[in-house]
Records
---
Amino acid sequence: MCGIFGIVTNREQGLGPVLTDAARRLSYRGYDSVGCATFHADHSVDLRKDKGKVDEVASRLGFAEMTGTRGITQLRWATFGTPSTINAQPHFDSDGDLVGAHNGNVVNNVELRLQFAAEGMTVRSENDGESCVHAVERWFDRGFDMVESIRRAYGDLQGDYAFVIGHVGEDKLYAIKKGSGLVVGLTDDTTCVSSDLPSILPLTRRILRIHDGEIAILSPGSVELVRVADGEAIQRDPEEIVETMEAAQKGGYPHFMLKEIHEQPQVARELLHLLDASVDVAGYVEKMRKARHLYLVACGTSYHACMLGAVYLARLAGRAAVPVLAPQFIAQYGPALGPEDVGVFVSQSGETKDVLNALNVARERGVEVLSLVNVIGSTLMVTADRCLPLACGYEISVPATKTFLNQVVAFLYLAMRMGGHPTAMLYDLPRLIEATLQQVEPQIPALEQALLPWHDTYCLGYGATYPIALEGALKLKEVTYIHCEGMLSTEFKHGPLSAVSDAYPVIFVAGPENVPLIVSGINEVSCRGGRTIIIGEEDPRLRANGHDLLVLPKSGPLFSPILGILPLQLLAYRVSVAKGFDPDFPRNLSKTLTVD
Ligand code: M6R
């Protein structure tokens, strides 16, 4: 994911090392390009940028020697335009008077670039960060000052972003926030701004948080805030940050797992923007469509996403796809594989040995290798014939949460594209995810008590909620050390029902289309004294028969299974913490499994 950092000082000085350090601190987000711009007192600008890693590009382009009174650095993670020197940020405006960089997605970038070119501006790249600069240039060149030009640009730029921009003839930088993070840091003679608090903390602990729809005007040692809506000044005092660097990286949450659970609305929104803007999706979908056999290959959580992906592909595109655990792929289907087949290999890390082993054999048999991967530059990403990124940023907690969500969102999106359905309705999903988290989180503590005394339990689903039940069970096992078995709800009566005794907890994930079947399963448990915990939309049948009902917002059969994973993630997290475990780093487990 992109990151930005800007700094304003009161005298010409060596800013290159400061900007390079800030870029290193932003690099945990994942990126493919890096750039620095410094503004000199004589109104010249030094702009150096390229694709590559911070240390390599910094040493090749000599960032260390860059001096100035103001500076901007940006890490780019490609959405609009391939990773390249020209698409790297920061960007100049047409005549080199404005320099800026952004973080986020400008969703009307393609339309804007055409407009800017038609208006006579020099558009050099495909990148939406450049559109932010031209959007300001458009008004600045008509005689408006910087603040007014940025206010007007805000109306032109659609999407979620933050950007920082400066004019050669001034001693200020300007930053604006809309949907993406933005924080200002202050010392007596320096002011900096960044997409990330942790990138500022080594410089100062006096910070000011910028809200959506606000412009920050940065001068050395001071900042003014202006509201975009009416141009009025805003008064807000800086705060002193006392938390450690690690706590700051956790963004105020006690654990990365909880932070990452709460990042899900945002990462889903960003992924949808990315896929809508991607020129790679059409070819990717075409390969899936033309496949003789379509396999969805992964391990663990990523495999559960493949299972739900197969449900979506059948439902929305009429396409049968085979979800398969990676180590079983060759063992089971190896003899049947051929060049007409396509494998979609799915992985958070892109380094899971089981997945790469399967990929290598499949490739030998001529299978077209597609991938969905989170970690940029990973082996799976670079070796696949085609790759779509999951766009979650780093997932630090060992239990996968936000990457599972985006794997499922990616499959849903691909299935809709393959089936010829408009994808606009998917933008409702991030809002529903947010609403679900708010709605269910207060109800989790009561359920935590139901699970705590037990060493084992079950999590049951049916149809589209079956993969969710498996994933919920995996989350519970992984971080609580309670044995939780995920199962098709109808299978429970074929044996496991014997486990039920007084107050024995069984979790059901009910899809809105399968309520009667789920109710049968609930009654089989409750009439034997078991405690049934139901996750589903409000329904009198579920309420009347279940013991506890965790209510999901009404969203229908496509979205409801996705929302169903959220209470299970929260429940696993809470039980883990209540038992005194560290959910971020469960015993015996590793985030990336590079062994057989
Ligand atoms: O990086 P991958 O998605 O390939 O990893 C696969 C599994 O190891 C992983 O999903 C694992 O099951 C998770 N830690 C579960 O939360």
---
Amino acid sequence: MNTRILDCSEENLLYAAGIIKDGGVVAFPTETVYGLGANALDAEAVKKIFAAKGRPADNPLIVHISDLSMIEKIAAEVPPTAYKLAERFWPGPLTMIMPKSELIPSVTSGGLDTVGIRFPSHPAARRLIELSGLPIAAPSANLSGSPSPTNAKRVFDDMNGRIPALIDGGESEVGLESTVLCFDGGGVRILRPGGITPEMLSEVCRVTVDRGVLNELEEGAVARSPGMKYRHYAPRAKVIILRGSAESFSEYIKNNAADGDWCLLFDGSESVGDVPYICYGSSPDEQAHRLFESLRELDARGAKRVFARCPGTEGVGLAVYNRILRAAGFCVTDLEVVK
Ligand code: TXA
Ligand code: MG
């Protein structure tokens, strides 16, 4: 099977919607990252997603909708707070977990009795869902364990030959996956941070950030979100986060860098001698936008070990930090302590 790359024309979206209606899988752009979509209500179609990605069967998929009324068909019960959040943040990079209805097969929910629902804002994603007339289950369109793809080339790198078609919508705007939350009394608990930040959510309700967002799951503990227990977003290179000032970073590199080492810098103003580097931006929005592409680029350049500048955790920074922490397998060196 050769994977066709198609632009976002109405004709191509109709073709892609036809594949979904026939029980097939297509990759499509969203404002966060690219998704790998199939009919969320069809267990056989959803199994093809798991096969294409090599994804563990216990990791549930997010179901994408294009109209608020679809939520009542796929959720058994919609908490009042969900409507308030939907009004404020949908369409957009927010996934809300709620009890699933019987229409959602257990393959889609990874065996759980809940379903994560998201109404994306990307026009091509919305149109694809509308034209298929179905809720679309879609994980990120990468091979399981790799960084999520933020452009069509990276989807093609991972999925060529595994799916019939890929809709090319250019670079993903946010660059990191959606914020995933569940309901907790009248408030919410963030299981995966993303473009909708704790600060933004707390304007609507009480917000807790789950311990798993910034900490490694303890041996034997049950993840509230199965995705948290897998080593995620990881490039082949070994990533080490260096926490500290630009000066202490430069000092550390001068004393420790060896052949095959690369740096992942903010804006390149850090001095790293002749150690090769890639920049992922100085603001959290830029860092979110570029992180996954930078990790893939470092692999393409043959980096063996990567020393990364440590982002802040305010606003979207929390999502950037959460992803880079996983890419690094929780390996963080505190430079001010080392000194
Ligand atoms: O931005 C996004 O969310 C992208 C685009 C394509 O929409 N999708 C995405 O899907 O990132 P995926 O499958 O790569 O990540 C979904 C995460 C996983 O960590 C999964 O464990 C968690 O959400 N999740 C999904 N449904 C859940 C549920 N019912 N309960 C707990 N966690 C859930
Ligand atoms: Mg993913």
---
Amino acid sequence: MRERLSRAARLAADAGWDALLITPGPDLRYLVGYDAVPLERLTCLVVPASGDPVLVAPLLERPAAAASPVGGAGIDIRTWGETDDPYRLVADLLPGSSRVGVDDHMWAVKALSLRAAMPAAEQYAAGAVLSHMRMRKSPDEVAALMGAGRAIDEVHAAVPSLLRPGRTEREVGRDIAALILETGHVTADFVIVASGPNGASPHHEVSDRVLQVGDAIVVDIGGTMPDGYCSDETRTYALGDPGEDYLRAYAVLQQAQRAAWEAVRPGVTCESIDAVARDRLEADGLGQLFIHRTGHGIGLETHEEPYIVSGNTLPLEEGMTFSVEPGFYAEGRWGARIEDIVACGGDGPVLLNHRPRDLVVVD
Ligand code: ZN
Ligand code: ZN
Ligand code: ZN
């Protein structure tokens, strides 16, 4: 933790900021291991560019903060009472500041209150610094994401048994949410069961649509493990025969997805991974139907940097973890997506999901 805090302080100094102000959320958890619930009362980790970090916390949250790794690390916890002004407290810790980095996840009302308390301090989004650190995973973090990958694989292994004509997407989704918890996640963060024409909407969740023979069904699911790391995996299923056109397009998608993750290695840019998938789909006339980026980073958040998208010239580095999830979406007809989480290894891709990528036909 001390190592992460001192790196963050150094990067803040490099950015010309006097401090980082971090409120409950993934950045706070990443820096000091404190999984605080974001509430209206201000909890704020003040990380000065030089000097010791201080956690400003409501008096009633002191026991929780002290029980977290913050307590063990001996970080100073400065509490405030119900009628005190916590923003003043933060301002008094940073006299003469002219620039501060503010947590990307900070509530607007808190950022505005800090601005009022520190009118001379210009605010910048701290994500530039924090995502620089967070997108380069340590081996421990990659191992944590592997654990999340195994857990969600287990859920997908059970999905075919849940898909039957006559059940609704909502019923299937409820069963999947229960399985996400049973396999070791602490929360089921999203459950997409997109059957038939609903598959054409990439972020469809569930509806009362009844599954029918001939449906293709996109199942994209994920949750958060007790250590905070997230899972996210998509497989596409079919109830009976989805038809020739669909099978042909699916085969191309499968090649595109495979080619994209096979291209992962240090030095290759994020946008070129996107291009591999897109070029393959375009070559078969499916490019117009691939309406989103190829992937997103994953860690303590399901969507974080690096984004695998055209225009992102960031070269991959060992330890970066992200999804590779091309799809095709034909409005009114059907959709498909195949999604795996991939870690960039020292000389190639390390897949964190292992379910077969063939269309799973349920009879
Ligand atoms: Zn998505
Ligand atoms: Zn995803
Ligand atoms: Zn997904």
---
Amino acid sequence: MATFNHKHIIGLQDFSKEDLELLISTAESMREINNRLIKKVPTLRGKTIINLFYEASTRTRTSFEIAAKRLSADAVNITPSISSATKGETLSDTARNLLAMKPDIIVMRHAVSGAHNFLITKVNCAVVNAGDGAHEHPSQGLLDLLTIKDKFGKLDGLKVAIVGDVTHSRVARSDIFALTKMGSHVYLAGPPTMMPPKVENLGNVAVASSMKEAIQDADVVIMLRIQQERQGKTLMPNTREYSRYFGLNPENLKLAKPDAVVMHPGPINRGVEMSSYVADGDQSHVMKQVENGVAVRMAMLYHVSGGGETE
Ligand code: CP
């Protein structure tokens, strides 16, 4: 039986195909708990999990908290905008102080890429990355994999188009690292100003010359959010122009396979990255992604806690 040999979850780039398969299969079994009348098991009873989110979040923070509670852990949320971070406390000092309270896991989102690599040098508990700058968003990558596997029963051999602001997207990086390891064929499309200069360094991906080329016959179309908060300057003439060339609408979606699934990590800029017809249409799997997010985060917390019985 496969074992999980990582103390922390910082990024999917660090994980083998077997690690990814183990996390996905654990999430698949965790889903059963989420469908029970009483959605709670004692697996992580007595464990303390601190959610430390230095950036805004709806989906990730809520689902990490729900995941912890469904596994009976004690979850504590810290909002830096009302914490001593506003008084100038450094991440290092915050970490030392939190560690004094003996948490078992710290789940952190931070605007700085690599902040978690720093945090793990300051604490002896497990650290889970809930998104760091433009680096990685491992829980989103895993829930994307699970959502695709739910639809097609496999990941290998699928054509996956990832469209939009690749440069600033941590979701794109985690998806690329994981999908290519699982044998998917990843095609990227986006404005040249939103495509990283050495994109080939991200892995075995193809850069399409247009959105049409990327989504032609695709099994999966993942639309990225424009990361305005990470763009130092305006990288597109205007949103109407962006939507014309890189927005998903019912017309260009016809280029993908008829049973193609449409995904987006959220929050969606409706009418820019995709039209509401697509976002709310039959092919949209956006709400399935959110649903799978709880099971995936339960699996992540379970494995960094050392595993054991789920009951
Ligand atoms: N996908 C995602 O990270 O959403 P939130 O920012 O709402 O957590």
